[in-house]
Specification:
Two copies of one chain form a homodimer. In chain A, strands 1-3-2 form a three-stranded antiparallel beta sheet. The radius of gyration of chain A is 22 Å and the shape is elongated. By secondary structure, the first copy, chain A, is mainly α. Chain A is built from six helices and three strands. Chains A and B meet through helix 1, helix 2, strand 1, helix 3 and strand 3 of A and helix 1, helix 2, strand 2, strand 3 and helix 5 of B. The structure holds a DNA duplex. Chains A, B: Keywords: DNA-binding, Transcription, Transcription regulation. Chains A, B: One of its GO terms (molecular function) is DNA-binding transcription factor activity.
DNA sequence: GGGCAATATAGCCGGATTGACATACTCAAG
DNA sequence: CTTGAGTATGTCAATCCGGCTATATTGCCC
């Protein structure tokens, strides 16, 4: 799983996966739609293959690549514990972005032990301080 | 979203997020548990901050960092179209692989439920614009 | 077998990134 | 105003990565 994030970090690779979502394709087809050269695409495919994100089927000279979603499932699993956080209060978050009220998540479980005190009251937001 | 994958690609950063999952923490606390130096942690926090993955609250000299799940939600959204692929039929997909004897799951009860495709391959794939 | 089509591999380069160290900044307490 | 805690920033070395060009490999077809 660790490396899957690194692999998805590249836009070209995500694009390849997106293309393969509709079904398997030969390399040349991918090259046609991506603005990359064939060797570059092959290199990406190698990376994806070694990560288990795609699978190849050989048909004469042509090699049909197909998506293998399993590693993505692991990413999904990694996300699981976090998912609660936005499922829990999505609207509250949006409201927060829009108007910046003053307070947010009601759950303050300070990990340490010393509840700092008043809880939150974040309003600092995006103050880019140069 | 694009950059969120790149940010999650770093194990230290994922570790930081994991630590923040239980609640906000000051920098020193993170430094204590990560085997990194304080400047390095601060640097990672800066990256996370600029990506909107964490948020800071200042309390005297101490800065409490807190998780902001929204970018993770976007990752989740990106995953959505793929999710069907494994949720729908993981075993069937593996069986569908050409001749992979590895599956060996003797009792596939999904008789003919939903052959994932058969079609796949829109071979019209050639790039010539329609 | 020769030639062509399709893909993979090798090698190179520029740029980005991570880590540590040293240093600057900020705030509260005397 | 000085000090010390807490954190941020700057710099440097090492490493990794994505893209390209050139070349090797494989397999059909004549």
């Amino acid at each position: 799983m660790a490396s899957t994030f690194a692999i998805l970090a590249d836009p070209s690779r995500r694009e390849i996966l997106d293309l393969l979502r509709t079904g398997e394709r030969p390399v040349g087809d991918l090259v046609d739609r991506l603005t990359l050269t064939q060797p570059t695409v092959s290199k990406h495919l190698k990376v994806l293959r070694e990560a288990g994100l795609v699978d190849v089927r050989q048909d004469a000279q042509r090699r049909w690549y197909r998506l293998r979603p399993q590693p993505l499932a692991e990413i999904d699993a990694w996300l699981a514990p976090y998912r609660r956080m936005w499922e829990h209060s999505l609207d509250a978050l949006e409201r927060h972005l829009d108007t910046m009220p003053e307070d947010s998540t009601p759950d303050d479980s300070t990990p340490n032990d010393s509840t700092p005190n008043g809880t939150t009251a974040d309003d600092s937001a995006e103050g880019t301080t140069p």
